[in-house]
Amino acid sequence: MSKQANYRANIIGGGEAGVALTVEMDKDVIHQTNSLFWDTKGNEVLGATALPLYGAFVSEENHRLLGDVSGKKILEIGCGSGQSLLYLGERQAAELWGTDISENQIGKTRQLLESHGLSAELICAPMEDKCGLPEDYFDIIYSVYAIGWTTDLEGTFARIASYLNKDGVFLFSWSHPIHKCVGAEKDMLVFKKSYFDESWYSVELGGNTLSLSDRKMSTYVNALAKAGFVIEQMVEESDDDLLQAQGGSSDFAKKAKVLPVTFVLKARKL
């Protein structure tokens, strides 16, 4: 991956995480970099975000975006270590399916579900690729903090639309674009990068490298529309009870009180 001399602050999770280096977008190299990250220490470095949480300070229990999943055929994009699929399996989903770029994560998901008497169809493949998933089949497709890893947002949304039944629901969460631009500095919130900068960058976390792009909100919305979705709901405010549970004392919680750190979009296939 060719690197350009363009350095900037990088915000991942609750705060700045090292310096980001702008890189050229090479799909294959990015897949290799990110799959290695999650095969090794991804969970140790970034943890695991899973239902009932959609991300920092936003929960399914408060917003009921998925609602009653009993009897539904459900696919998770970026299933991670399986906690979200377990959550839905325990709520009587009819079928559980999951994809992930990491063999290690697929193995963790399978082990977790089997330990609870559940099973799922699991596929290790990039979300951008056609990987044998049935078309016009699923009632719900969701992704918790994984969609942002795609190297082809429009292509990924088009594939997801092809997997869904008519009127099927697609729901995903990710770090809010504004949060990715703003960092804490001397008891103030300061813009660290341009909101309009969607360039790919590389950053080292815990001795491991990952590659990402911080997309604008309009990029997600327009890609959904192009794929044939209509947006039904968007959540970007933090849940008060989750903020209060932290006492509002952490810098991240203080930040979440004044700007969105997580967003969730719920859309329906036309």
Describe the structure.
The chain is of the alpha/beta class and 270 residues long. The chain is built from nine helices and 15 strands. A seven-stranded mixed beta sheet has the order 7-6-5-8-9-15-14, sandwiched between helices. Strands 1-2-12-13 form a four-stranded antiparallel beta sheet. A hairpin with a 2-residue loop joins strand 12 and strand 13. Helix 6 packs across helix 7. The longest helix has 14 residues. The chain starts with a strand and ends with a strand. The N terminus is likely disordered.
Spell out the blueprint of helices and strands:
Layout: E1 3-12, E2 15-23, H1 27-40, H2 42-46, E3 53-55, E4 58-59, H3 60-63, E5 73-77, H4 83-89, E6 95-100, H5 103-115, E7 121-124, E8 138-144, H6 153-163, E9 164-175, E10 182-185, E11 188-191, E12 200-205, E13 208-213, H7 217-226, E14 229-235, H8 240-245, H9 251-258, E15 262-269
Parallel strand pairs: 5-6, 5-8, 6-7, 8-9
Antiparallel strand pairs: 1-2, 2-12, 3-4, 9-15, 10-11, 12-13, 14-15
Helix pairs in contact: 6-7
Brief account:
With 270 residues, this protein is α/β, with parallel strands linked by helices.
The helical percent reads: 25-40%
The total beta strand count reads 15
Tell me, rounded to a whole number, the average pLDDT.
89
Summed up, the helix count is 9
| Computed CA radius of gyration, to the nearest angstrom | 18 Å
Order of helices and strands: EEHHEEHEHEHEEHEEEEEHEHHE
List segments where confidence is low: pLDDT < 50 over at least 5 consecutive residues: 1-5
